[in-house]
Amino acid sequence: MTLKGRRAIVTGSNSGIGLGIARELAKAGAEVVLNSFTDSAEDHALAEDLSAETGSAVRYIKADLSKCEEARALVEAAGGCDILVNNAGIQHVAKVEEFPTAKWDAIIAINLSSAFHTTAMALPVMKERGWGRVINVSSAHGLTASPFKSAYIAAKHGLVGLTKTVALEVAGQGITANAICPGYVLTPLVEAQIPDQMKAHGMDRETVIREVMLDRQPSKEFATVEEIGGTAVFLCSDAARQITGTTLSVDGGWTAL
């Protein structure tokens, strides 16, 4: 398939899952807007390198998605979009009674509220064109829970609910809204955690991955950023035009348990 002529915004996309999705969309021919809260030479060089690699136009726009006005300004600065991927997210782990208020507010703002603001700005252009794809990157934790992650889990569950509401509001207008729910994905951030986990548990790399990090993932394999990106490209395809208001789990069987 081709996404030539389509513009995609991918939030939180200068590394990890977001960058993997952006790369696959660009490989499919979409013009891509990368985003994060920084505005460094490396950010813009990343966009240039991705453009050279894929042959698609790629640019970088800074926006701090903890601020509603910047989330909305991102879509405006991009000139609207045909494909919106809400991927930005942060995490903090603590008991509910010890959870810092500032961390709760930041996680809800970045992981959930920013998706509302970008979607609200993107939909008018999608409606005008009669075509659009809203893809929210939720999590296996958008469908189930774990202790000590109250803000993250609340936000990811909320993102699934937002997805369903948007899908119902735009049904029949050529626009779909879906949530991808990854389990553990092998990103640079996760890769960096492996040596510490090996030391903490006194295990070799393969054992700590299988028995600690992937304890809840029955496949005992990480998903890859390429697989998440490929899922996003599929959701943009004509084959997926009747898939809307739902979740696609890419979690090695985690939520089947």
UniProtKB/TrEMBL annotation:
Q: Which SUPFAM superfamilies match?
A: NAD(P)-binding Rossmann-fold domains
Is Magnesium included in the keywords of this UniProt record?
Answer: no
Q: Which organism's genome codes for this protein? A: Pseudoroseicyclus tamaricis
Alphabetically sorted, this entry's keywords are: Oxidoreductase
What is this protein identified as?
A: 3-hydroxybutyrate dehydrogenase
EC number from the UniProt entry: 1.1.1.30
- InterPro entries, alphabetized: 3-OHbutyrate_DH, NAD(P)-bd_dom_sf, SDR, SDR_fam
Q: A GO molecular-function term, please?
A: 3-hydroxybutyrate dehydrogenase activity
Query: What NCBIfam families does the annotation carry?
Result: PHB_DH, PRK12429.1
Q: Which domain of life is it from?
A: Bacteria
Return the similarity comment.
Belongs to the short-chain dehydrogenases/reductases (SDR) family.
Q: Does the keyword Zinc apply?
A: no
